[in-house]
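explain this:

___
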Amino acid sequence: MSLFKAANQKKRQNLYIYRSTDNGKSWNILISAVTQGSIALGPKDEIYILTSFSTIVFSFDYGATWKSKEITYKTETTEIGTFARCITTDNDGKIYVGSEAGVSRSDDRGNSWKKLDKGMFIKNIWSLLVCSTGEIIAGANSSLNAIYTSTDKGENWVENENVTHQIIYSLAEDSFGNIYAGGDYNLYSSTDKGRTWKTLSTINSSFTNVVVDKKNKIYSTFANGGMFSSNDSCANWEEKNNGLEKLSVFRCLLLDKNGYIWAGTNGFGIYKSKASVY
């Protein structure tokens, strides 16, 4: 298994994309790039990484060579790019990017892009999830409806009216197909693929990253620091910070197939859980 990360080397004032082929024991620099820290893998191990502003870099040979492409859309007078925040793929190899202008999709491994925002009132997208059954969930920074659902690969979107005035930072799915959305102060859940939502937990912070293991235990990082878990439908949260030296900002969480949790921080390195959660 290869792992990838983007990190800030303060002495050199550069950003790099790294790869590990020994389960995180050592890391090698692949390329120098200013990244947003959002990485997606395609069904044939394609690597897609958002870099500065609206540019994506991609590799089809495990990082040996790279290409880049700017994600743009046409207006009546010109062709412009937009700030991209999140990226994901589906089982057909289609790529989805969430940005300040909605969602863009590529059907040809990143070479061309189609802007998809039909039905979106707020187009400032912060998170994306492709469900196991094919639906796509998009989380927005919204003064009104903050979550959108598409059942046709992003061609059309439906607003979910009971989640409002939120930034949806993270989306996750459990083994039963339930969806979780982490926002400002609230963690939401949906049992019908994002059509309706209920508040599962409320805290004095934001749910910045959420992952769910195969036992349906929920792990989350909070904006004001720390990692926590819950196995009782979020009625209670247990602190999981032993060994995490810096608790200020976590950029991402990953639960690998062997049950180890990986935590990427904002400038303080990457952490791996000492034991599998399974």
Summary: The CA atoms of residues 80 and 243 lie 45 Å apart. Residues 9-13 have pLDDT under 50 and may be disordered.
